[in-house]
Design a protein that fits this description.
- α4 packs parallel to α6 (about 160-170) and α9 (about 230-240) crosses α18 (about 375-405).
- This protein has helices at about 50-60, 80-85, 100-115, 125-135, 155, 160-170, 185-195, 215-225, 230-240, 245-250, 260-265, 275-285, 290-300, 305-315, 320-330, 355-365, 365-370, 375-405, 450-460, and strands at about 1-5, 15-20, 25-30, 35-40, 45, 65-70, 90-95, 145-150, 175-185, 205-210, 330-335, 350, 410-415, 420-430, 435-440, 470-475.
- The radius of gyration is 25 Å and the shape is globular.
- The two termini are about 25 Å apart.
- About 30% of the residues are buried.
- The chain has about 475 residues and is of the alpha/beta class.
- Helix content is about 45%, strand content about 20%.
């Protein structure tokens, strides 16, 4: 019945598009909200070929009539860089900063004059005037407009969305504007464009959500910077960054290409990682962020059930927060053993974002050290406790790697008491095969006979696996 036959993970096609120029300028914010500029040499633009093709198609279609494309994704995922490289010769860039609408319009007028050399009569005080002018201008002169952090209009002037809807509906047929709208507050962006009650519902011609690097791309990026990297280096890069391009760049561009250097970089003075979780989530959570952050810290620290979290926080009223974290903010998901029924009492919570697991596990949990600038002490804690976190991250890495194949049902298994647990089960529903793995950083620690006893307990409670050809084995750092 049992076969020690490992499942080969096929290589996923990796697409690399070299930047047109050998260098470029990137802007980001420091911990105090000030602009910082970074100059990168000979960088590559990785793993966005599918998205680039879609943007190219929208650009071609906009020559017939205006097109609207929505780019969504967490902060630092590369939306701005991708939108700037949509393939058009003329790209206007409007950043929706948190300031008065009149001041934003002044910025946009300057951009129009610089990029299009187009005179604007008077000084428009509303975005509606600027947008209407752009739509009319593009009737005889096609170009691309990128509006970045679009959701910020909600706080500046919510009426802007209705104004855009009106002018878009009036001018879309005659305009040749290639409009790309991006935003990083997922809840607000989905509300603006997917809520039937909102004016811009149904107006987008294409909606894309950018994801972190695939495991194969992450390996390629690390290999470009450090051809002699080890599996420990790769695991550290994944554990810290979750494959988010901006975090990867922050480490590798500064020569942090091995495990020790990466971990040390996290608590260096002015490290952008220190406040990154707050920068990402406070705008999402608003005034309730302390409660949400406390719950997420518990989950990141290994508390998987509601009762465990309630006991830790001494709070029996976290139910509504858990529901919103899952259904509205999409930060956590409920996890069940593979093939378990939806009403199973074996449910656990898990964070969706690998970087946030790391941030809540260390930076927020030990925020007292951060606030007292005791970064050396925090660095020592990270070094001490990293191995425990990296075990979970190795598990997530292999799950992601199999998911990228698109051919398998992937999950874990545990019994109700949590006494028996299987790290990874990969099922081929077409071929009726299943691979049941134990994950060990060092392969020699795998005990086949003991593991197969666990598998027998899985089969007792999971009839879906009994009629399949089963393969048992282990995955280790060497298999990454």
């Amino acid at each position: 019945m049992y076969y020690s036959q490992p499942l080969k993970i096929k290589n996923i096609a990796v697409f690399v598009w070299l930047f047109e120029y050998n260098s470029y300028l990137c802007k980001s914010n420091d911990n105090y909200g000030n602009n910082k500029y970074y100059f990168f040499e000979d960088m590559k633009f990785y793993n966005r070929e599918k998205e680039k093709r879609t943007l190219g198609e929208m650009l071609i279609q906009s020559k017939r009539e205006a097109r609207m494309t929505i780019l969504m994704g967490r902060r630092r995922i590369g939306k701005t860089e991708l939108s700037q490289r949509c393939g058009d010769d003329i790209v206007l860039y409007f950043f929706v900063g948190k300031k008065a609408e009149t001041l934003l319009c002044q910025d946009y007028v300057r951009e129009i004059r610089e990029k299009l050399d187009a005179p604007i009569l008077g000084a428009p005080n509303s975005f509606s005037e600027v947008f209407r002018f752009i739509l009319r201008l593009s009737e005889n002169r096609p170009f691309t407009l990128v509006i970045d952090e679009f959701q910020n209009f909600l706080k500046i002037n919510p009426a802007i969305f209705s104004d855009i809807q009106r002018d878009w509906d009036l001018h879309k047929r005659t305009s040749h504007l290639n409009l790309i709208i991006s935003g990083s507050v997922f809840t607000l962006m989905t509300k603006i464009f997917e809520d039937k009650e909102e004016p811009l519902f149904g107006r987008a011609d294409e909606m894309m959500t950018l994801e972190p690097f695939t495991t194969d791309v992450l390996k390629q990026v690390l290999g470009d910077f450090n051809p002699n990297y080890t599996s420990e280096d790769l695991l550290a890069l994944y554990s810290i960054t979750g494959g988010v391009p901006w975090y990867v760049t922050l480490l590798l561009d500064k020569g942090k290409t091995d495990k020790e250097k990466m971990l040390t970089a996290l608590t260096e003075e002015n490290s952008p990682f220190i406040n990154e979780g707050k920068n990402i989530l406070i705008e999402e959570f608003g005034t309730d962020y302390v409660t949400y952050f406390s719950i997420l810290t518990c989950i990141a620290s290994g508390m998987k059930t509601r009762s465990e979290i309630e006991n830790e926080l001494q709070n029996n009223n976290i139910g509504p927060y858990l529901v919103k974290l899952e259904d509205y903010y999409k930060v956590i998901t409920k996890s069940l053993p593979i093939f378990a029924k939806k009403n199973s009492k074996k449910m656990r919570y898990q964070l969706n974002d690998s970087f946030l697991i790391f941030w809540f596990r260390f930076f927020y949990k030990y925020q007292a050290l951060v606030e007292n600038k005791a970064l050396k002490a925090l660095g020592d804690i990270i070094q001490r406790d990293y191995s425990g976190v990296s075990g979970l991250m190795m598990e997530r890495y292999f799950m992601k790697k199999f998911q990228e194949e698109g051919r398998y049902i992937i999950g874990k298994w545990w019994d109700r008491k949590g006494e028996n647990e299987i790290d990874l089960i990969v099922v081929d529903p077409i071929g009726k095969e299943a691979w049941i793995y134990e994950l060990k950083k060092q392969g020699y620690r795998y005990k086949g006979n003991e593991f197969r006893e666990k598998v027998d307990k899985v089969l007792e409670q999971t009839p879906e696996l009994r009629n399949m050809t089963l393969h048992t084995g282990s995955l280790s750092l060497e298999d990454m």
